[in-house]
Amino acid sequence: MWKVCDHGNARASSIPALKKALAEAVDLHNHDHPATLFLGGDHFITYPCFSLVAEKYGSPLSLLYFDAHPDLYETYEGTSYSHATVVSRILDEKNLSSGTVCYAGTRASTREQNERISSLGLTAHTTHDVYEKGCDAVGSLIRSQFQNKPMYLSLDLDCLDPAFAPGVGNPQPGGLTVRQILDILHALAGLEIVAADLVEYCPGAESEARTTAFTSAILIKELMGIMAKPESARVIRNPFVSGDSLAHS
Questions:
Q1: DSSP-derived secondary structure letter, 43
Q2: What phi, psi does 36 have (nearest 5°)?
Q3: Regarding the domain delimited by 15-247, which CATH topology (the fold level of the hierarchy) does it fall under?
Q4: pLDDT at 45 over 60
Q5: Hey, is 186 helix, strand or coil?
Q6: Which of 9-13, 111-115, 182-186 has the lowest mean pLDDT?
Q7: 88-111 confidence digits (pLDDT tens)
Q8: Residues ≥6 apart with Cβ < 8 Å to 46
Q9: Other CB atoms within 10 Å distance of the CB of residue 246
Q10: Exposed, middle or buried by CB within 10 Å (0-12, 13-18, 19+), for 111?
Q11: Which contiguous run of DSSP H or E holds residue 222?
């Protein structure tokens, strides 16, 4: 039996204010180190959420990043704080990030980002890798990399093919199927997933059939299932926070 607590929304117009709002939301109830699930929103929220969770955990965390894009630019459109710079900002936090980053479902990278992935020693399982090697093989590789490592899991809905999640900010054809991502997630059961997020749901781009919303609901349930501790799990809803609004504040 799961015990789920909704800590409400965290709203802010600057990075420091967002971190403060998130901390206040997380501390609303006295839980005994449960797993935390954040919902967004612009993928930039992963940076403050990751930092907050690592600080509270008291040890550097590794990062598993489901996304069509690596989000590894140093700057993007004139700002260092953007949905396209998330992983770079996390890696900057030397005392909070272990430096271990594994991508899954990438297919829209650039030469600059590919070179950074290589130079930083990061791991990438592209969508092509998943189709070529199979979900079991990729899931096993991810599992072996994160064995005995506390981790943060970030899932951008655009890692899925737009046929399954059209309502996202940056849809990219040629993505994973829902079945594939579920199989990979199931391979992670038992790992120490300290926190996770599900991001980039964009209602304004949603289909009339609400395909993305229904897909998101399934993924939330599956994430809670693989994160749940024997006695409790915690859920925090997080609002949409745009990278642009934070960058100019």
A1: G
A2: -125, 135
A3: Arginase; Chain A (3.40.800)
A4: yes
A5: helix
A6: 9-13
A7: 999 999 999 999 999 999 999 999
A8: 40, 86, 90, 152, 154, 197, 199
A9: 23
A10: exposed
A11: helix 211-227
pLDDT of residue 57: 92
**C-alpha neighbours within 13 Å on the C-beta side of residue 125:** 26
The token duo for 126 is 């592209």
**Cα–Cα dist 50/96, whole Å:** 8
pTM: 0.91
Mean pLDDT of 101-126: 98
Q: When comparing pLDDT for 201 and 31, which is higher? A: 201
Residue 108 amino acid letter: A
- Phi and psi of 19, rounded to 5°? -60, -40
The pLDDT of residue 31 is 67
pLDDT in tens, 17-40: 988 999 888 888 766 667 899 998
Are 110 and 84 in contact by the 8 Å Cβ rule? The answer is no
- What sign has the CA pseudo-torsion 204, 155, 124, 122? positive
97-106 and 234-237 beta bridge pairing: unpaired
> What sign does the dihedral 177-161-153-32 (CA atoms) show?
negative
Residue at 83: amino acid letter: H
Residue position matching structure tokens 């096993």 = 140
Residue 182 CA to residue 90 CA, distance in Å, equals 26
The total number of residues written for the chain in this structure: 249
Tokens 């590789």 appear where? 141
Reference 106, options 42, 45, 48, 155; nearest CA is 155
Percent of the chain with pLDDT over 70: 89
